[in-house]
Amino acid sequence: MKNYAMKMCSVKRLERTELEMPVAAADQVVVKIEYCGICGSDMHFFQNGAIGTRKAPPDFILGHESAGTVIEVGKDVTTLKVGDRVALEPGVPCGKCQYCKSGKYNLCPDVHFLAAAKPPTNGALRNYFAYPAEWCFKLPDNVSTMEGTMLEPLSVGMHAAGRGGAELGKTALIIGVGTIGYMTMLACKAMGVSKIIVSDALENRLALALQHGADYAINVKNEDAVEKVMEYTDGEGCDIVFETAGSPVTLASTWKYVKTAGVIVNVGNASGEIPFVFGELARKEVDIRSVWRYRNIYPIAIEAVRTGKIDLKHIEPAMFPFEKSQEAFEYAFEHRSEVLKTIIQVTE
């Protein structure tokens, strides 16, 4: 067997490079990576060589949405065996800091997150990968390995929904129905949110959302979003407003849609200074909550998919073979308004 990775040798350029075949340490398993999704952060590194001040190191390996099959097990591993299909949670925290010990390991300052530049941690766009067994989650028989790859963005959406207090009786607005917005919508539906409104400028995204969970869709190109939200909520606004587009403009406008005593959830993590109308927020006593990745979600996400509470099967990603990873990244950028997800089939 040979192990190859797609390394980002320069901005907008990937090259296939042979790596040593990994060997499992005592607490690791070796995973044959079968699928690797392209995330927005991967695209930022590919297009710009950086995300803000986080610069990609030389010969960086991208990819943190991955799943595959265990082919080797370390001597201390008892939870997995050869042949198990697993999804890899991409963040490996230190386990020792105050955040890890309190269960908020996503906030660990020393976390090694795949395809992240601080600290430089190479990703999963490779054939074989030795990875800590603790962060490999076994997939049930009725959950495909490709669905396992999509658990990563689903976990972001589920964490966002949890941060917003999504539950039966609540009304939610999701601003931006890209991958994360769509996953947030699926999570809100599974958690019982009674009325889900989505907004976007792309009709294809809105149509898909209406088919799979949204009650109302607002095309911001030709509709007044504030007017429509108030119409759909009897003039009260929404209990939860999720900003998932990552736009400073839409994040700054969230106060217009939120109900008194409601919650604004910043999922898209727009950069730069955001001007909020704090007088209006104070008058309504609104909470503003942020989202940083996720924590303790993978087992719950797997169970939700296994039981059919969340359906990922209807998502039809654009698929590319490993040797066409360059084309996959180019396609994901050029067709970002048309395709919800792009996935690379690394090995069969």
UniProtKB/TrEMBL annotation:
Q: Which CDD domains match?
A: sorbitol_DH (cd05285)
| Matching SUPFAM superfamilies | GroES-like, NAD(P)-binding Rossmann-fold domains
| Domain Enoyl reductase (ER) span(s) in chain numbering | 12-344
Q: Name the source's superkingdom.
A: Bacteria
Q: Could you tell me which PROSITE patterns the record lists for this protein?
A: ADH_ZINC
Q: What SMART domains does UniProt report for this protein, alphabetically? A: PKS_ER
Name the UniProt key words of this record, in alphabetical order.
Metal-binding, Oxidoreductase, Zinc
Cofactor(s) the protein needs: Zn(2+)
Q: Where is the signal peptide?
A: none
Q: Which Pfam families match?
A: ADH_N (PF08240), ADH_zinc_N (PF00107)
InterPro entries per the record? ADH-like_C, ADH-like_N, ADH_Zn_CS, ER, GroES-like_sf, NAD(P)-bd_dom_sf, SDH-like
Family, per entry: Belongs to the zinc-containing alcohol dehydrogenase family.
Q: Name the PANTHER family for this protein.
A: SORBITOL DEHYDROGENASE
Q: What is this protein called?
A: NAD(P)-dependent alcohol dehydrogenase
Tell me the organism: Blautia faecis
